[in-house]
Design brief:
The protein is mainly α. It contains 4 helices and no strands.
């Protein structure tokens, strides 16, 4: 039988990295699952920081779908979108494009230049 937890607007939230590790931003939704495999702690890399920001943005957008009048969550959503934009620009500047759209920002077409994600050393992933 399905069960949906009621989300409180004042519920505590995980940090962005912890949210990505646990699969949810909201601590009250981090419920035990009998087949859960605990994820290892993520390495503190620029790519993982960007992944964590994208994850939190997605979590907040899903929350706002059901709580559209939560102005505090919307401000938090806006802040994370701005942080993600800045982090993406910094990542692209330091490591190269993440998407073909990012490649359009360079003076030359850099999409085919390496290294590709599978060419990074394991500790960077």
């Amino acid at each position: 039988m399905p069960f949906v937890v009621h989300q409180s607007p004042t519920a505590p939230r995980y940090s962005k990295t912890k949210a990505l590790e646990n699969g949810t931003l909201f601590q009250e939704l981090d419920l035990p699952f009998h087949l859960k495999v605990n994820a290892p702690q993520l390495a503190d890399t620029h790519l993982n920081q960007l992944r964590a920001l994208d994850f939190v943005i997605q979590e907040l957008s899903l929350y706002l779908d059901t709580h559209p009048n939560d102005s505090e969550a919307f401000v938090l959503f806006q802040n994370y979108v701005e942080l993600e934009k800045t982090a993406r620009e910094k990542y692209v500047e330091q490591h190269g494009p993440l998407t073909q759209n990012d490649a359009a920002l360079s003076s030359t077409y850099t999409w085919v230049n390496g290294p590709w994600p599978w060419q990074y050393p394991e500790e960077e992933v």
